[in-house]
UniProtKB/TrEMBL annotation:
Signal sequence region: 1-22
Protein name: Exo-1,3-beta-glucanase D
Keyword Transferase set for record: no
Superkingdom of this protein's organism: Bacteria
Topology with respect to the bilayer: Single-pass type II membrane protein
Entry's localization field: Cell membrane
Keywords of this entry: Cell membrane, Cell wall biogenesis/degradation, Glycoprotein, Glycosidase, Hydrolase, Membrane, Signal, Signal-anchor, Transmembrane, Transmembrane helix
Record keyword Transmembrane helix present: yes
Family per record: Belongs to the glycosyl hydrolase 5 (cellulase A) family.
Annotated function: Glucosidase involved in the degradation of cellulosic biomass. Active on lichenan.
InterPro entries, A to Z: GH, Glyco_hydro_5, Glycosyl_hydrolase_5, TAT_signal
Domain Glycoside hydrolase family: 41-343
Length: 369
């Protein structure tokens, strides 16, 4: 038998807030207040801009339209390899970009998003790769320090490609590096290795009173990533999988028959394994209830800063239904969210450079209505 856990003031306030929210209707904005941090929500990811030298900035009119629609947060990936050298022009570009977004009224998650080269470096020499991330934050923390703490949230490392124990040690070092210059900014971190919602269960929070734990949700992958061409991945051979779905769904049976007729047992098994139990809104809700329990246990705010469905070969109704189910499950469990992503394979607008081509059904799934 274990002793009852000690309840800190932070934990008690978080639990009290959870009780209040449970008995009150959710506000339109689910930016959650805790004793330590405002949790940014109702957002989207914006890769392909400040994470590369020749990235494409969103048009002013597009940002204005997205803000007017009700989006409040932008998760902004940056590349450690581009900032670790401390190049003033690169750092100034990032700072100016964030200032522009804050000027439109957005909160910004500044996401250290490792390149493929850095991910490979973590496989070959984790210690040296970790030093590269630390060096990048030593350069970037000066930028963060000059940006408003109430609007800008540094995220330590996206999908940390390390074993859990190694990541926890590096996580504390990165946090200390940022805290040296940024005592008031809320730190965002996720569990190793994939930042999956299931990986948070045995991950403790940071030794810091101003933090947000962030997870990703793409389940089931056979649905969210169907037609994704990752080398020899069987996902590339899965198409038209609906949501909700079970092994008894007619479309699923048709797909399984087609795959097996082609001799593709690998793809058929992936579909069957992922649909070993039906994928429904209720199943998604259970995953987020588990996340909410972790948050309450640790007194640590949580957010979902990646979720999405590729638009390559899924019907629009299934895609919007899954997005709505995830967003509603997150909000029902007081979990903030940012969608992956704006205008690429998972996107909900045609181009960041134009106000035309907004997907109304996806925007309604994300923002309600």
């Amino acid at each position: 038998m274990t002793s009852p856990p000690k309840v800190s003031r932070r934990h008690a306030l978080a639990l009290a807030a959870g009780t209040l929210l449970a008995t009150s209707p959710l506000p339109r904005s689910v930016a959650l207040a805790t004793a330590d941090a405002r949790v940014p929500s109702r957002g989207f990811n914006l890769p392909g801009w400040l994470d590369r030298d020749s990235g494409s900035a969103p048009a002013t009119a597009t940002l204005e339209k997205l803000r007017q629609a009700g989006f409040e947060t932008i998760r902004l990936p940056v590349n450690a390899d581009l900032v670790s050298g401390g190049d003033p022009a690169s750092l100034r570009r990032i700072q100016n970009g964030i200032r522009d977004l804050v000027g439109f009224g957005f909160s910004v998650l500044l996401d250290m998003h490792p390149s493929g080269e850095l991910v490979a470096a973590f496989r070959n020499d984790p210690e040296a790769a970790g030093e590269r991330v630390l060096q990048a934050w030593m350069a970037l923390r000066v930028v963060v320090a000059d940006l408003p703490a109430q609007s800008v949230y540094p995220e330590l490392l996206n999908e940390p490609p390390l074993e859990r124990s190694a990541w926890l040690a590096l996580r504390e070092r990165i946090a200390a590096t940022l805290r040296a210059n940024c005592p008031l900014h809320t730190l965002v971190w996720g569990p190793a290795r994939f930042q999956g919602i299931w990986e948070i269960a045995d991950t403790p929070p940071l030794a810091d009173d101003n933090q947000i734990a962030a997870v990703h949700y793409y389940a089931p992958m056979a649905f969210t990533h169907q037609c994704e061409n990752w080398g020899a991945s069987p996902l590339a051979r899965i198409a038209n999988l609906p949501f909700p779905a079970s092994k008894e769904t007619a479309a699923v049976n048709g797909l399984l028959s087609k795959l097996r007729a082609a001799g593709d047992e690998e793809a058929a098994k992936l579909v069957e394994d992922e649909l070993s139990a039906p994928w429904t809104a209720a199943r998604i809700a259970q995953d987020f209830a588990d996340l909410a329990r972790w948050s309450a246990t640790h007194g640590c705010p949580v957010m979902l800063n990646e979720f999405g469905v590729l638009n390559f070969c899924v019907d629009a109704e299934s895609r919007a239904s899954w997005v709505r189910a995830v967003r509603e499950a997150a909000e029902a469990n007081h979990v903030a969210w940012t969608y992956w992503e704006l205008d690429q394979g998972f996107g909900f607008i045609r181009s960041r450079r134009s106000v035309e081509g907004f997907d109304g059904s996806m925007i309604a799934a994300l923002l309600g209505g």
